[in-house]
From TrEMBL:
Belongs to the glycosyl hydrolase 1 family. This is Beta-glucosidase. Gene3D superfamilies: Glycosidases. It comes from the Bacteria. It holds the Pfam family Glyco_hydro_1. InterPro entries: GH, GH_1_N_CS, Glyco_hydro_1. One of its GO terms (molecular function) is beta-glucosidase activity. It comes from Tepidanaerobacter acetatoxydans (strain DSM 21804 / JCM 16047 / Re1). The keyword ATP-binding does not apply. Keywords: Glycosidase, Hydrolase. One of its GO terms (cellular component) is cytosol. GO terms for biological process: carbohydrate catabolic process.
Length: 467
């Protein structure tokens, strides 16, 4: 961190998860609206039609961020609010809404950090093949251009795509996000197109004199392997390729890792979606910074047998579903008995923050990094009008301590965002799993109540800034 550059402390949301107003003011439906309204696979039987109603209450929310001492807010734009059909006619009321949101941030001295795509693909685009269709890459570019033109004079930080790996993985391999597919080939194709779309938008952005910088947000988590024999080393390399390098090498260095396509061919992936003419686009479409969403590491062991399969626990506490992944011919996840877990069975391992940041420093020549998400999901309850989320405070404190140690040891971290600003819809868990610094009473007119963690974060920021 240079001395004159202020460290950014903030929190994050995404459009579908918090805005509500799903069909107001000319917004078109997104893939998630259709899924939540019609799919039998929506086992929570809830939607984000209203969620915490950020569309109408954004000023109250931003004011609370400012009162907490936060100096930045990460949110995403709903593509279908800007372009109801995904392409074609722009919805002026959609532009107006994001103008108001951005201007309100600036009024409260909050730096807007804007993500263009956070999972909510316009339904019209999903219907014609979504990210499997190469045309979607140019549709995204068109949408990105409209946003750059409309907001590029006031937005200092942009991200093209939130978590290309995790989105492609949940939608096309685990099958828990729409369109609920489980197919390695389709997963690979979607992953490629997401990165191509990001590179094209970054190329476009860099052609103009916008005030901001642009990056991509990756679901970062370092890989650790159980053993240390030759098979374990191979499992480590395969898992790092699968979870990280195809995204981070490509968006930071401008080309895919050498071993990626041969390894995909071994898995009988049809690589006809890879085009020679895309190479210069990737090369010129590298990021100014990396957004890193850090929740946990990936702990793996060598692949033994069986078909590719992924278990995700969306039932929560008291469930005996053990989360786990087998990628045929690549690796399997291992289970570390010594690490504590959240109610959904996922590891709570704050040291991964340090390990991952140091690894990124070594791999990528110390690229600037924003921790664009870090959080802890749990069931929060109101007791005597208050929310005592001590567990969240303890865990976030540990993550932040590891981040500060990494900065001390040379990691180029420029900002940190808690997921999430307030309680909102969780993709596979509906409203059961809460992450917010601010409690939302969904049963009681979406009333906002700052949690104990909100006041803890306020103190932490003040202390950091020497106030
Ligand atoms: C990230 C997503 C967020 C958010 C978070 C928590 O991967 O970018 O949108 O949902 O994970 O995930 P979940 O709500 O599934 O626990």
């Amino acid at each position: 961190m240079s001395n004159n550059e202020k460290f950014l402390w903030g929190s994050a949301t995404s459009a579908y998860q918090c805005e509500g107003a799903w069909n107001e003011d000319g917004k078109g439906p997104s893939q998630w609206d259709i899924f939540c309204h019609t799919s039998k696979l929506n086992i929570n039987n809830v939607s984000a039609d209203i969620s915490c109603d950020h569309y109408h209450r954004y000023e109250e929310d931003i004011k609370m961020m400012a009162e907490c001492g936060q100096n930045t807010y990460r949110f995403s734009i709903s593509w279908a609010r800007i372009l109801p059909e995904g392409t074609g006619k722009v919805n002026p009321k959609g532009i107006d809404f994001y103008n108001r949101l951005i201007d309100t941030c600036l009024k409260y001295k909050i730096i807007p950090n804007v993500t263009l795509f956070h999972y909510d693909l316009p339904a019209a685009i999903a219907e014609r093949g979504g990210w499997e269709n190469r045309k979607t890459v140019d549709d995204f570019l068109n949408y990105a251009k409209i946003c750059f033109e409309a907001f590029g004079d006031r937005v200092p930080l942009w991200a093209t795509i939130n978590e290309p790996k995790y989105y492609a993985y949940c939608s096309y391999l685990a099958g828990v996000y729409p369109p609920n597919v489980q197919d390695f080939n389709r997963f690979a194709c979607v992953g490629y197109h997401l990165l191509l779309a990001s590179a094209k938008a970054i190329n476009e952005f860099h052609k103009h004199n916008y005030i901001g910088k642009i990056g991509l947000v990756h679901a970062t988590g370092n890989v650790e392997v159980q053993g240390n024999d030759e098979a374990s080393k191979i499992a480590y390399r395969n898992a790092d390729l699968f979870y990280n390098k195809w995204v981070t090498d490509t968006c930071i260095k401008g080309y895919f890792p050498d071993d990626l396509f041969p390894k995909l061919k071994e898995s009988n992936i049809d690589l006809s979606f890879v085009k020679e003419e895309d190479k210069p686009i990737f090369m010129n479409g590298t990021v100014d910074f990396l957004g890193a969403n850090i929740y946990s590491r990936s702990y793996v062991k060598p692949y033994t047998s069986g078909e590719t399969r992924i278990n995700i626990n969306n039932v929560g506490a008291n469930s005996n579903i053990r989360e786990g992944v087998v990628i045929k011919g690549w690796f399997e996840t291992a289970y570390d008995e010594n690490v504590r877990r959240n109610l959904w069975g996922r590891e709570i391992y704050p040291k991964c923050m340090y390990d991952e940041l140091m690894e990124l420093k070594d791999k990528y020549g110390n690229i600037p990094i924003y921790i664009t998400e870090n959080g802890h999901g749990c069931y929060d309850e109101i007791v005597d009008g208050k929310i005592h989320d001590d567990e969240r405070i303890e865990i976030l404190q540990e993550f932040i301590s590891w981040m500060l140690k990494a900065i001390h040891d040379g990691a180029n971290v420029k900002g940190y965002y808690v997921w999430s600003s307030m309680d909102l819809y969780s993709w596979v868990n509906g409203y059961k799993k809460r992450y917010g610094l601010v409690y939302v009473d969904f049963e009681n007119d979406n009333k906002r109540i700052p949690k104990k963690s909100y006041f803890w974060y306020k103190d932490l920021i003040a202390k950091f800034e020497g106030r």
